[in-house]
Amino acid sequence: MVEHRLTDRMLDLIRQEILALRSGTIAVDISFAGRVVDFFRTYVDLCHHGKEEDILFKALAGKKMTSPHRRIMDELIEEHRTARTIITGLKEAKDLHAGVTDRRSEIMAIYEKIVELYPPHIEKEDKHFFFPTLEYLSAEEQDRMLAEMLDFDARLFHQRYTALIEQLEAGRI
Question: What is the pLDDT of residues 110-136, one digit of tens each?
């Protein structure tokens, strides 16, 4: 859930970018778009979704879950797939725009998809899935899973993406 708070901050930055683009006073910031792609591919998908799919969901897959919890887990997995498709679309639009093909409206639309998808997704995980599904796991399983997640994180770059968001928020990039 801590990772969701950093994602919320990126969503705020994307909303600010949408407003600026809508006003027509700025050009598409290819550098910002690239950072959004990087953040969502690495921090959100590899790190966050990776732990969910490779550790939590795998642990829960063998459990006798209620149908509402199983349905939510399936929805979350599908939303992860949707997010990957959206971010791939942003990368492609960004690359074409950088090649002097005007993709301003397409990039804005993709940003809007991102900020529409993630808040309800995050709320679903935070309020309706994570804590209730812990009941399916013993204390030992939870401890083992936490250790796996810590090992998983050790291989990734939390500090890099925290610094990126802080720089973007401060307008230094």
Answer: 999 999 999 999 999 999 999 999 999
Copy the structure tokens of residue 170.
């401060």
Q: What is the per-residue pLDDT across 4-60, written as a single tens digit (0 to 9) for each?
A: 999 999 999 999 999 999 998 888 899 999 999 999 999 999 889 999 999 999 999
Task: Let me know: does 105 contact 27? Beta carbons within 8 Å.
Answer: no
Structural domains of the chain, count = 1
The set of long-range contacts for 81-86, using a CB threshold of 8 Å and a minimum separation of 24, is 82/117, 83/40, 83/44, 83/45, 83/49, 83/114, 83/117, 83/118, 83/121, 84/45, 86/110, 86/113, 86/114, 86/117
Domain enclosing residue 123, as ranges:
2-169
Helix ranges restricted to H, the chain: 2-23, 30-38, 50-51, 57-61, 67-98, 104-123, 130-134, 139-154, 158-169
At 121, the amino acid letter reads H
Q: Cβ atoms within 10 A of the Cβ of 24, count?
A: 8
Fill in the amino acid letter for 125. Answer: E
89's CB contacts (< 8 A; 6+ apart) are 110
Look-up of token digits 């900020």? 115
